[in-house]
């Protein structure tokens, strides 16, 4: 009978980051695209903004912060487009004591954060 020790979790977010620290390099744009990166962005750009928000709401996608707030709901709080520029700000401050959950992504697989 298998035990918990027989199962090694498969990384999802860090799958392109080798566990061996000596082999870690930053994932380049070309590597990210070759592994299927940005396909979802292409799809999203072909949709209306409201359609994207509804899709994310339906997926119940949650933020990576401690509260796990639903991303689609948060996105629905944005004011309607007015033709002016929009800016994306990413807060990578991991000020929670003992937490470094996103550091590997930002350092070695930054395209996955975008």
What does this structure look like?
With 114 residues, the protein is mainly α. The chain has a domain at 48-78. Helices cover 34% and strands 0% of the residues. It has helices at 29-34, 39-45, 49-59, 71-75, 103-108, 110-113. The model has no long low-confidence stretch (mean pLDDT 84).
Break the fold down into its secondary structure elements and pairings:
Layout: H1 29-34, H2 39-45, H3 49-59, H4 71-75, H5 103-108, H6 110-113
| Straight-line N-to-C gap | 42 Å
Which class do the helix and strand fractions yield? mainly alpha
Low-confidence stretches: none
Q: What Rg is obtained from the alpha carbons, in whole angstroms?
A: 17 Å
Biggest beta sheet summary: none
Question: How many distinct helices?
Answer: 6
**What is the ordering of alpha helices and beta strands?**
HHHHHH
Strand tally is: 0
Specify the overall morphology: globular
Strand content bin: under 5%
User: Helical percent range?
Assistant: 25-40%
What's the pLDDT, averaged over the residues? 84
């Amino acid at each position: 009978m298998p035990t918990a020790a027989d199962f090694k979790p498969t990384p999802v977010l860090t799958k392109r980051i080798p566990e061996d620290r000596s082999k870690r390099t930053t994932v380049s744009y070309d590597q990210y695209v070759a592994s299927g990166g940005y396909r979802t962005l292409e799809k999203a750009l072909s949709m209306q903004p409201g359609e994207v928000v509804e899709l994310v709401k339906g997926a119940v996608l949650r933020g990576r912060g401690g509260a796990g707030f639903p991303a689609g709901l948060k996105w629905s709080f944005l004011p309607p487009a007015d033709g002016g520029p929009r800016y994306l700000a990413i807060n990578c401050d991991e000020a929670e004591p003992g937490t470094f959950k996103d550091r590997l992504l930002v350092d070695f697989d930054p395209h996955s954060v975008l």
